[in-house]
Amino acid sequence: MSSEASASGSDSEYNKRAEPLPAEQMAMERALDLARRGWGRVAPNPLVGAVVLAGDAVVAAGYHAEFGGPHAEVVALRAAGERARGATLVVNLEPCAHHGKTPPCTEAIIAAGVTRVVAAISDPDPDARGGAAALRAHGVTVSLGLLREAAAALNAPFLFAREQAERPFVALKLATSIDGRIADAAGSSQWVSGEAARDYVHWLRAGFDAIAVGGTTALHDNPQLTVRGPITPRRPPVRVVFDRRAMLNLGVQLVSTAREVPTWVMSSLDAPPSSVTQLERSGVRVFRPTTLRDGLRMVREAGIQSLLCEGGGALGARLLTPSPPRRAGRRWSGGLWALIHYWYWTGDYVYRNRQRRRARRQGDAGDGKRHAGSHTHDPGSVQGPQAG
Ligand SMILES: NC(=O)c1ccc[n+]([C@@H]2O[C@H](COP(=O)([O-])OP(=O)(O)OC[C@H]3O[C@@H](n4cnc5c(N)ncnc54)[C@H](OP(=O)(O)O)[C@@H]3O)[C@@H](O)[C@H]2O)c1
């Protein structure tokens, strides 16, 4: 599938080295950390971080902080100044070679006198790709493939959108109890998760174009599905309800606030016309797909590249139902893909929180230092170039 394909083949070149250079590996880890700070602010652009290395020493770093703003490479190179001459630039995505909202990064790299670029994955974007070739043509050494799996997972929605246009990248998020349930027996529990998990969900929502739930969840739990965390997304995610029978009514928050936050209902041709009309009068945009796949296609056509499904069980199970293989020998389903990436993100979050707690304990113990790379998913007020 998309990012896996993009992360293989020519991108595995770096692995031909017996051992990655430790300084480059650490710089790439840092670049990935920095890239994540653009979450919710740069889409549909990719998340990108960059580090400038002179020998083994980090001299500057930066990330793409805002859609339309300078790219990570340019931020890092500006921070490095003359120290970029003869240096290595480590970046999680192949530098772009085109004039978009900003000039090509390849030009900035060549002008700065960088002699080596280490990138995790190639850029599949038809407009931006070709940076590695452009750099090599100017005598810059380019290595691709370092930490490519982590880099592909970080930008999975971006890579997926460039691979196919039939549906959005779909991630499924479910909170489960320790015995694997998503609600109590009566189905009356609005939350089975705690405060930390709900904070994480607000962070997660900020990076998606749309948030989806099933009609039963919308009725029972009456969620707002808005982003109320530390990140204000550049564009508030559209709320999508899969509600074949158009059961939603004005008593549901998603409908009563539909004029303030875009709300779409994926209904069906069988839904009562009066219910559809009532929803439309409330400001809801109603689609009438014939199948779930058709609904996802409509969502993509309407401009949604990434969709976070927050349950419930029926809709989640339907999304996880395997679809026919896309290619002989590769039995992928969209649902499986979504689940893998959900676990990637969750695992990452748990890992970072552990690091943060460890750093706090160390701080409490009196050494007063912050653990390297110990920031959580919340980037706080840090913006733009990070001096190395
Ligand atoms: N722990 C969690 O993370 C979590 C998250 C959300 C919800 N929940 C809990 O889960 C429960 C609700 O889950 P649920 O399984 O009963 O229902 P659900 O998944 O929320 O909703 C099912 C809805 O999806 C619609 N649907 C199913 N397949 C569809 C398709 N192919 N196209 C369009 N619509 C489709 C159904 O329409 P039809 O009726 O026409 O089939 C129905 O309206 C609640 O108790 C809630 O609290 C837990």
Count of extended strands: 12
Structural class: alpha/beta
By CATH, the topology of the largest domain is Dihydrofolate Reductase, subunit A
Question: Beta-strand percentage?
Answer: 5-15%
- The number of distinct helices, counting runs of at least 4 residues, comes to 14
Q: Could you give a short account of the major beta sheet?
A: 6 strands, mixed
- Helix percent reads 25-40%
SSE succession: HHEEHEHEHEHHEHEHEHEHEHEHHE
* Uncertain regions spanning at least 5 consecutive residues: 1-9, 324-337, 366-388
Please tell me the CATH architecture of the largest domain by its name: 3-Layer(aba) Sandwich
CATH class of the largest domain: Alpha Beta
Oligomer: single chain
C-alpha termini separation? 36 Å
Q: For the largest beta sheet, what order do the strands appear in spatially?
A: 5-4-3-1-2-12
Quickly list its features:
elongated; Cytidine Deaminase, domain 2; 6-stranded parallel beta sheet; disordered C terminus; 12 strands; binds NADP nicotinamide-adenine-dinucleotide phosphate; alpha/beta; Dihydrofolate Reductase, subunit A; 388 residues; 14% strand; 6-stranded mixed beta sheet; 2 domains
Provide a concise account of the structure shown.
This protein has helices at 2-6, 22-35, 72-80, 105-112, 131-137, 148-154, 156-163, 195-206, 215-221, 253-256, 273-281, 292-301, 313-320, 334-364, and strands spanning 49-54, 57-63, 88-93, 116-121, 141-144, 169-172, 210-214, 238-242, 263-266, 285-287, 306-309, 386-387. It has 388 residues and is α/β, with parallel strands linked by helices.
